[in-house]
Task: structure prediction
Amino acid sequence: MTPPLALTCGDPAGIGPEITLAAWRRLRHELPFALIGDADHMAALGAPAGVPVARIAGIAEAAQVMPRALPVLHQPFTSAPVPGAPDLGNAAAVIAAIDRAVKLARAGDAAAVVTNPISKKVLVDGAGFAHPGHTEYLAALGGVARPVMMLVAPELRAVPVTIHVPISAVPALLTPELLAETIRVTHAALRRDFALPAPRIAVAGLNPHAGEGGLMGTEDETVIRPVLGALRAEGMDLAGPLPADTMFHPPARAGYDAAVCMYHDQALIPVKTLGFSVGVNVTLGLPFVRTSPDHGTAFGIAGTGRADPDSLVEALRLAHRIGRNRAAA
Amino acid sequence: MIHAPRVAFAIGDAGGISPELSARVLADDEANRGDMIVIGDARVLAMGARQAGVTLDLPVLAPGGLVEGLPNGSFIVDMANCDPGAVTPGAASETTGRAALQNFAAALRLAAVGVAGTVFFTPFNKHGMRLAKADYVDEIGFINQTIGATRSGREFNVLDEVWNARVTSHIPLRDVADALTEDRIFDALRLTVETMEGAGFERPRIGVAALNPHAGDGRNFGDEDEDILRPAVERARARQMAVTGPIPSDTVFVRAVKGEFDAVMTMYHDQGQIAMKLLGFDRGVTLIAGYPFPIVTPAHGTAYDIAGQGIADTGATFNAVALGRRLASRGAPRTQTVSAADLPGLFDGKVEFAPVAG
Result:
């Protein structure tokens, strides 16, 4: 039996709290998780929604509590959260919840960390947060320099090699070292986390038509192709560089387990076009398992009941599956 | 006397599915409204009819016959430029490439002189065209050269009710950011609006895809979205165009499909092509606009893997013909007659290609 998942509250003025309640309703008999957040806040929110909330003393209790109430590891907020109106005073508690989840996962008490969305701006202004983003912060906590992001949609896993950078910076950042490392991390994760003993990876070209033999850009021939050649020699099953506009068709997708893409939108466009509300992010290469929904805090609709919990539900399911695969390995 | 704009119809690459698609268009009462001037080898069309299992009864004119006045109804101008015996189904060749280029050039010239109001062609194969004409890059360069256009047209992809226009296309990704200027984006928006109005959209709503991830995330991931795209969008809005953006490019197509936009303006090739192809763009139409007449073709290629089997889907092809007619300038053709001077080289069956300038 794998341990429960540690779910962080994210920004409590965003949609995190309400989608957490909805996720508990769907998953209470399927898998255990504990929310790290303010138990009083969650109890007040859960009452009108008919979701009982139970404050637990340790995450191990989550499995037993889960079927009858949402288990919460109490992490008090300074001020009562108001949906849609983020409060800088709560920034420190939002960060503390992340820290605590990571500690639990690294100690083996939690099978994985699942994170609700944060607002980087709120954390910067409220707590002097000095990291480029959520994922980078988790990487720092895990002592990892370059985390790898995988987007998981129902029919596609996609890994961008460069992530939150301008398009104009992508070609220079796309070094053989970064590409090789990203493919290696992806390959290892497919084996270990997704239980695929012989992963097949498709690698996108950088330029239109993958450069068409150098007619439209050189990097596909000078950077990508040599890296793939070297990694194939190590025994990896790699296809590419492939024209990015024809590698996401259903028949093409049937031929690989993950697509490695050169930049953020090259990976995100197919993922979101294929399954907008059910994408999940997985951070690869960390010393613990981490998944998250693929949306933000959505302050604009927080508290209106319009938030869609599907992505969080899938993030929890995937974290649980990965935890099980690692335990079985 | 024909009173509606004619369709100049170039038969594409004979090694692929173009022959059977051409035959199916001509055999269909909805697609063929008796207004088509088919340009190609009559034997290739007959081969297509056999592959498709349709019967065609089409007047055949020699190229020189055009000067004696155009017949009523659809007919074929027999270019006699592609012996089916020399065609290998599923393979590109210089013969099929050259014939496709000749057919295309003739169709463009017929439209340029005003005999036809739109040009439609069945799929080309670039490899074959390059075997016949080494400096062939893309349709737009060839059109400029063939009709002497000084200003390049633009390519649009039309899928059901979503259009995609792009600011840059076949250039290296590293050159994209530098190629984007406020003027260039604004011009692209204006041409898109004008073209869509011509297609019957009253006030087309256009979503502009951001260049950088998360539309630059407030300048964290690049300044172009704020400094170049946003001013272009604001300029268009000041001129009463229904333009929104920049919008993160991973969500703009989803919003368009849900009905929020009629068109998406993308900044680079794969940004639009990945989404459009996933959305089923094989059913879609490629439109080249910005010339005195619209040029349309199915978005899919020659489909060499199923060439000659008579099983090609006709959806995109019929959609292309319909869009060309919809966009053709209204009213009767400007002229019903063609002179030899209008169509240099056509009458002796030798359409020569000068190198593309620049």
In short: Residues 231 and 356 of chain B are 35 Å apart (CA to CA). Chain B has two domains: 1-159+283-358, 161-281. The longest strand of chain B covers residues 116-121. Chain B touches chain A through 37 residues (CB under 8 Å).
